[in-house]
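Hi support team,

I've been running sequence recovery on a batch of backbones for a student project. Most finish fine, but this one hangs at about 90% for roughly twenty minutes before it completes. I'm not sure whether the input is malformed or the queue is just slow. I've pasted the structure tokens below so you can try to reproduce it. Let me know if you need the job ID as well.

Thanks,
M.K.
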């Protein structure tokens, strides 16, 4: 058998390997761990790093019984001088929101008051300590991070989470988020996970530093086997057991218990071809089956009660007539321990104890658990036990589960709410009420990110006696599931039909469905059926008016419907009114701003409104950070990063893109690519970036997301215009302009004009200019008119061109779009050089080169440098920076600190702890050669 392999991927340092059995002192916790020198050394380094003030995260991964829990115990015993916090995932608790997190944090609740208000309130609601609106999971994650950091200020903290594969979804997401944000806190977070993983933790923990715990090598395995087998053991049988167990310590200890003396002596028994985990569990099943009936029932009750609450289990035992002798028998069998908490020897013992019982026994035990659980302090677990005790539909139990779902939803446990509603549906006797609950469960499942489960529930609801309104809502939910799975055109006709059905029943819901249909059609873009977008727009315009006074989304619906029904020029004013409505009295409309940002941001780009672009993203980012809005913040950060790119603030954009990616990675969601790809298009100094963008275009085509295809071609046009490869830019821009994509078509037209004018295809440029003139003139913003003047100048000659270039510069100087101003200086300088006005050309080209170099737009800056050389000017290459550059996150922290924010405030904005902020600032001060926050603004301006 191969050595146990230390594959730690992180900062734990080199491994000592997994040598033979280690001789240790009686007091050394490693004494019981045969053949685990390498693993123990890795854990020793982890503890040493935490004591030294460096956070550590580690995932112990291995099959059942391989020794993960034993290593976790070694870690706990070795961490002298550290505070220990523990939790364990329990399979039966996977649908109870925050169950695992509450286990870990319950002993720390006395420090809750030390947290910032929003974080404290979020945790209090999540853990049921107070009532309130559902806290966002991200804010809960930040609260847990702050709580752990606060505890570690007093004493290094080691957190051990065993059986993490059985954590509830919210706990898994939150702890994965915390693990990825730890850096300079005296905190270790160690997960023991059965691999390959199953359950919510499967995606959440991927990519964290890990140590794969493998079976013992053959010599150690034989020695361990000899320690538990008394009497003669045939060598061939020993070799077979070692080979079949693959060095799994628990299997080596347990499997021989199920073999007869004859089998041990000569190997005459039947080989068991079942999976090793199943074989181990079978040995536990046999051992449990040999115990007295009362002891078996006690083990069943303990298995069904996942918290390990000893007083509760004592009350249940009394109700079931189980005496104290059953406790002694269970402990004597070595299957369970009754201490401060009930602990099974191994999770497989728990599952075996539950599986060994028949349905009637399980129901009786759950009934006793429900009766013994306090309905005031733990109503949800009581309801869950009542549900498992039910033998037939029961409206009282279903109603209790529905109330539990409401409480779970209020705490932000949407997945738990869906689970409660699903079970409530199964237990509802009345067909109409059952269908209504199935509909509610489907809606909760979709919100929880489980579209497949939502479809199953919708199918169950569909066969029930639904009202006409409920059937229309079911149709809308089905369409939303389709859109959630893949943002292609399939959802458009479904949403349109749902909106049509709702219109006769609830005008407000109908208008929301029409807006969703428009949004789906916008994202499907060129992959819609011919005329489909216009069809949706016409239907939306013909819809009945909604509630009075009109909502913000009503104004947005009117603007977009007009835009696609009557054309761009007619749509400009209603779209502008919608933007103004969203921006006016923003304090009252914060939730609407967050909900509809995915469309309002595109509208602002479509009408060339850089001020609205700036305001919308600034407000939503701030609001999303204040509330920890996990579902909105990555999108808001991405859109804000795009605004920074157009402003020439590439460092700020990079920081936000990095933050958005970190959030999506921590939550297991797909990254939002547009911001990073736009950054590539503007910053890339060669054609390699084109491959990255094209790969995204190809993926978008497979998904059926047509708008992403158009945006990708626009970005490739930007990149190649920067490189001066106008033929490639022209082809890409022409493809981008094949469809009128909201918020992208006008930008693509401007690239097409430049590529055609400078690439020797003036007829194509002139045609694009004609379409651009119509849009920018209707918009009338300084951004629009500045781009129009620049584009006209590219196709003009003599004095007319000169006047237009100057107009472009003057207008763009009054905007926030610095990269477009720099490009205006660039094309003006190029034109002046061609006109042999070298001195004038140098002024414009120097300005362009300085701006573009400062932004980091390498290709465009190089284009300006080449033109300067052509004027005869010697362009000094920039010397390498003598000062080490700041990372994106360091830049962001430095800016916030320079603006006067405290470490706690910066941490709250960036979802890191104050100690991590302090650690980054120390590096910032060193790199910038400053010694106070007051110097940061000036130092950043110089970089």
């Amino acid at each position: 058998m191969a050595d146990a392999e230390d594959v730690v991927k992180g900062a734990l340092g080199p491994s000592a390997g997994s040598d033979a059995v280690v001789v240790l002192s009686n007091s050394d916790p490693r004494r019981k761990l045969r053949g685990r020198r390498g693993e123990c050394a890795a854990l020793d380094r982890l503890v040493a790093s935490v004591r030294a003030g460096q956070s550590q995260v580690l995932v112990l991964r291995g099959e059942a019984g391989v020794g993960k829990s034993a290593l976790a115990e070694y870690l706990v015993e070795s961490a002298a001088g550290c505070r220990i916090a523990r939790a364990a995932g329990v399979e039966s608790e996977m649908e109870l929101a925050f169950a695992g997190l509450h286990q870990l944090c319950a002993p720390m609740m006395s420090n809750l008051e030390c947290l910032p208000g929003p974080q404290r309130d979020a945790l209090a609601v999540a853990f049921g300590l107070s009532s309130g609106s559902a806290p966002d999971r991200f804010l809960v994650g930040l609260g847990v991070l702050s709580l752990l950091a606060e505890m570690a200020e007093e004493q290094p903290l080691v957190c051990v989470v065993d059986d993490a594969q059985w954590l509830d979804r919210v706990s898994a997401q939150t702890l994965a988020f915390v693990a990825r944000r730890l850096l300079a806190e005296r905190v270790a977070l160690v997960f023991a996970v059965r691999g390959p993983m199953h359950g919510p933790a499967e995606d959440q923990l991927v990519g964290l530093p890990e140590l794969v715990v493998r079976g013992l090598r053959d010599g150690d395995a034989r020695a361990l086997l000899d320690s538990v087998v008394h009497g003669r053991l045939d060598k061939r049988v020993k070799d077979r057991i070692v080979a079949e167990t693959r060095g799994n310590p628990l299997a080596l200890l347990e499997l021989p218990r199920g073999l007869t003396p004859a089998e041990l002596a000569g190997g005459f028994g039947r080989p068991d071809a079942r999976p090793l985990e199943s074989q181990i569990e079978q040995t536990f099943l046999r051992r449990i089956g040999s115990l007295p009936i009362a002891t078996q029932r006690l083990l069943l009750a303990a298995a069904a009660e996942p918290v390990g609450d000893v007083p509760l289990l004592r009350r249940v035992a009394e109700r079931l007539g189980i005496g104290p002798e059953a406790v002694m028998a269970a402990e004597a069998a070595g299957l369970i321990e009754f201490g401060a908490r009930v602990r099974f020897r191994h999770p497989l013992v728990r599952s075996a104890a539950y599986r060994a019982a028949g349905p009637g026994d399980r129901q009786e035990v759950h009934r006793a658990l429900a009766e013994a659980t306090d309905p005031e302090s733990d109503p949800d677990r009581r309801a869950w036990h009542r549900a498992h005790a039910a033998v037939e539909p029961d409206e009282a139990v279903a109603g209790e589960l529905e109330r539990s779902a409401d409480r779970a939803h209020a705490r932000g446990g949407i997945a738990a709410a869906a689970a409660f509603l699903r079970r409530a549906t199964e237990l509802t006797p009345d067909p109409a009420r059952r269908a209504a609950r199935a509909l509610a469960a489907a809606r909760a499942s979709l919100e929880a990110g489980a579209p497949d489960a939502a479809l199953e529930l919708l199918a169950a609801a569909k066969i029930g006696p639904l009202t006409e309104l409920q059937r229309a809502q079911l149709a809308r939910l089905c369409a939303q599931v389709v859109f959630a799975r893949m943002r292609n055109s399939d959802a458009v006709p479904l949403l349109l039909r749902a909106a049509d059905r709702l219109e006769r029943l609830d005008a407000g819901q109908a208008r929301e469905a029409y807006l969703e249909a428009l949004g789906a059609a916008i994202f499907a873009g060129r992959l819609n059926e011919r005329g489909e977008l216009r069809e949706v727009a016409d239907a939306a315009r013909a819809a009945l008016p909604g509630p009075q006074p009109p909502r913000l989304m009503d104004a947005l619906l009117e603007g977009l419907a007009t835009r696609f029904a009557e054309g761009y020029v007619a749509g400009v004013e209603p779209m502008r009114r919608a933007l103004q409505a969203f921006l006016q009295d923003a304090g009252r409309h914060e939730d609407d701003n967050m909900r509809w940002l995915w469309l309002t941001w595109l509208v602002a780009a479509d009408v060339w409104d850089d001020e609205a672009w700036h305001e919308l993203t600034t407000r939503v980012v701030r609001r999303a950070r204040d509330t920890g809005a996990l579902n909105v913040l990555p999108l808001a950060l991405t859109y804000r990063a795009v605004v920074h790119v157009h402003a020439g603030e590439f460092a700020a954009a990079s920081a936000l893109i990095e933050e958005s990616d970190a959030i999506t990675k921590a939550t297991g969601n797909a990254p939002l690519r547009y911001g990073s790809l736009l950054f590539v298009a503007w910053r890339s100094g060669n054609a390699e970036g084109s491959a990255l963008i094209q790969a995204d275009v190809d993926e978008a085509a497979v998904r059926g997301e047509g708008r992403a295809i158009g945006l990708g071609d626009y970005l490739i046009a930007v990149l190649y215009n920067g490189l001066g490869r106008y033929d490639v830019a022209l082809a890409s821009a022409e493809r981008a302009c094949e469809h009128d994509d909201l918020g992208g078509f006008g930008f693509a037209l401007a690239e097409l004009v430049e590529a055609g004018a400078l690439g020797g295809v003036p007829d194509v440029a002139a045609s694009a200019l004609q379409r651009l003139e119509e849009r920018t003139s209707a918009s009338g913003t300084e951004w629009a008119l500045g781009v129009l003047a620049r584009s006209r100048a590219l196709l003009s000659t003599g004095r007319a061109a000169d006047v237009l270039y100057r107009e472009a510069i003057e207008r763009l100087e009054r905007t926030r779009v610095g990269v477009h101003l720099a490009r205006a200086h660039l094309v003006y300088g190029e034109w002046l050089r061609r006109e042999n006005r070298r001195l004038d050309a140098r002024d414009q080209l120097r300005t362009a080169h300085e701006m573009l170099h400062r932004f980091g737009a390498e290709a465009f800056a190089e284009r300006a440098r080449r033109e300067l050389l052509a004027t005869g000017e010697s362009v000094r290459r920039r010397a390498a920076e003598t000062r080490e550059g700041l990372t994106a996150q360091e830049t962001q922290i430095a800016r916030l600190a320079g603006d006067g924010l405290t470490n706690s405030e910066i941490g709250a904005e960036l979802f890191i702890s104050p100690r991590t902020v302090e650690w980054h600032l120390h590096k910032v001060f060193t790199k910038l050669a400053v010694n106070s926050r007051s110097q940061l603004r000036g130092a950043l301006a110089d970089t």
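--
Follow-up from support: It reproduced on our side and the slowdown came from queue contention, not your input. The chain has a mean pLDDT of 85. No action needed from you.
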